[in-house]
Each structure stands twice: as C-alpha cells, then as structure tokens.
C-alpha cells in the first residue's frame, strides 16, 4: 500500500470511527433537545456542513426515479433510526435498538442475492439466521436468551424495535438501489436536506415543547453533527483511492465498535449476554459478505454505510 492509498484508507477508518460514536451521541442530543426537535436540529446542521464541505450536486446528475425512491428510502431510514433512539425508554434500550439497526448489512446481501440470477452460497442463509439470532440474544436482556424474555422486552416499547428493524430493511433496499443507479455521483447532501425538512415538518405538527438550548446541549449537538457529516464526507474521500477490500471488511465490525463507544459515551455497562449477541451479528454479517465477495468491493463499499 503506497502513501497515497494509505492516506485515503486512514480517512475511511476515521469515517468508521465517527459512525461508531454517532448513535450514542445522537441519543444524548435527543435526551437534551427532544426526539424530534433534537433530530431536526442535528440533520439541519449536518446538512449545512455537507453543503459547505461537499457541496450540493445538481439534481440532473441523477434519475428522477432514484431521487424520489432513493431519497424516500434514505429519509425514512434516518428518521426511523433517530426516533428509535430518541423514543427508547432508557440508554440501555437505545443501545439494543442500535444493534437491531445493524441487521442491514446481512439484509443488504440477502436482497442483492434475491434480486440476481446467481445461485447463492449454501452458507448465506445460515449466516443471515446467525445475525438475527445475535439480535434476539442482545434484545433478550442480561439474563440470557429465552423467547419469553425477548417478547417481554420488545413489548415494553415495541415502537422503537419496529422502527429500528424497519429502518434496517429500508437501508438494505437503499444500498441495493444506490449500487444499481447509473449516476456515479453522490446525492447524500440532497437527502440530508430532505431529512431535515421532513423532521421539521414532523416537529411542527407534534406536541414536543419548544427547543431550549444550553451550552452543554449546543456543544453535544455540534459534535454529533460533525460526526455525522464527517463520517459521510471522509467516506466519500476514502472510496476514491483507499483500500476498499480492507475498509469493507473493517466496516462489518462497526456493531462491535459502536457497542464499545456507546457503553463509554452513555455510561452503560453491557452484559456478557449482550456481547455474545453483538459477536453473532458481526459474524453473521461477515460471513454474508465473504460468501458473496465476488461482487466488486469498491462498488459495495460506496453504497454502504456502517452507522446508522
């Protein structure tokens, strides 16, 4: 790896690091400013940062189908994810919800295979089941897996689990749609602006109280927006000349990184049962990627995000 490729690869590593910190940081913002209002502020500032550092691409660079369908998928995913974090009963549940979100890599591979004429590997479906089993163990709580515990935990706040799981499905569809679009340009800035607008509309019709800013909440808001915009911006740079095989592989460990940083940022002690579930989610996603790795690595990595 030459110096230039190393530099681009490091940018990608930092992007993955940013995404790993993002979900916990977003939870803090929603605690301080409200689930909807805090999310609206977060995406507004992140969109502004993307406009400044990446710019706004011309809509004519994309097909109308991709702008509307891809944009709708992106906006719904981001809203579902942030609201699932914001509406969680507590910080421990927010971390659980974030792991449900990380089913999207396995689902992305599944939808890609279902949409192609190639015969999938015999290991693909067991790997997907492994990822789902990991989520089930994680969501079951600290005392080990059981169907009763899983059902009880989900029923305590079913909305956030439904939002997160639906978001994972939407993001997997979005990844496959983005890979197939003809334009090689990135519409992220446009989609961020659309997400911010949608959240402000929801805030306007909701009964959330007015936003009250403090020095602490303002600082956390800016840091989180920087992590969000910086992750996307650095990843866009990384895919130009980085080692995408390495970065694509590393990105599948994001659930582990995210759980570690979430535990630190949110001050939550995670049980051995939780870590076992996270390990299974990561292992299942890695196997899914490995058995379908004949797909061009760069193309895959360009369409995938590790955070959210």
TrEMBL record:
<dbReference type="InterPro" id="IPR000620">
    <property type="entry name" value="EamA_dom"/>
</dbReference>
<keyword id="KW-0472">Membrane</keyword>
<keyword id="KW-0812">Transmembrane</keyword>
<feature type="transmembrane region" description="Helical">
    <location>
        <begin position="245"/>
        <end position="268"/>
    </location>
</feature>
<dbReference type="InterPro" id="IPR050638">
    <property type="entry name" value="AA-Vitamin_Transporters"/>
</dbReference>
<protein>
    <submittedName>
        <fullName>Aromatic amino acid transporter</fullName>
    </submittedName>
</protein>
<feature type="domain" description="EamA">
    <location>
        <begin position="10"/>
        <end position="139"/>
    </location>
</feature>
<feature type="domain" description="EamA">
    <location>
        <begin position="160"/>
        <end position="287"/>
    </location>
</feature>
<feature type="transmembrane region" description="Helical">
    <location>
        <begin position="217"/>
        <end position="238"/>
    </location>
</feature>
<feature type="transmembrane region" description="Helical">
    <location>
        <begin position="36"/>
        <end position="54"/>
    </location>
</feature>
<feature type="transmembrane region" description="Helical">
    <location>
        <begin position="66"/>
        <end position="87"/>
    </location>
</feature>
<feature type="transmembrane region" description="Helical">
    <location>
        <begin position="122"/>
        <end position="139"/>
    </location>
</feature>
<keyword id="KW-1003">Cell membrane</keyword>
<dbReference type="Pfam" id="PF00892">
    <property type="entry name" value="EamA"/>
</dbReference>
<dbReference type="InterPro" id="IPR037185">
    <property type="entry name" value="EmrE-like"/>
</dbReference>
<feature type="transmembrane region" description="Helical">
    <location>
        <begin position="274"/>
        <end position="292"/>
    </location>
</feature>
<feature type="transmembrane region" description="Helical">
    <location>
        <begin position="99"/>
        <end position="115"/>
    </location>
</feature>
<feature type="transmembrane region" description="Helical">
    <location>
        <begin position="159"/>
        <end position="175"/>
    </location>
</feature>
<keyword id="KW-1133">Transmembrane helix</keyword>
<feature type="transmembrane region" description="Helical">
    <location>
        <begin position="187"/>
        <end position="205"/>
    </location>
</feature>
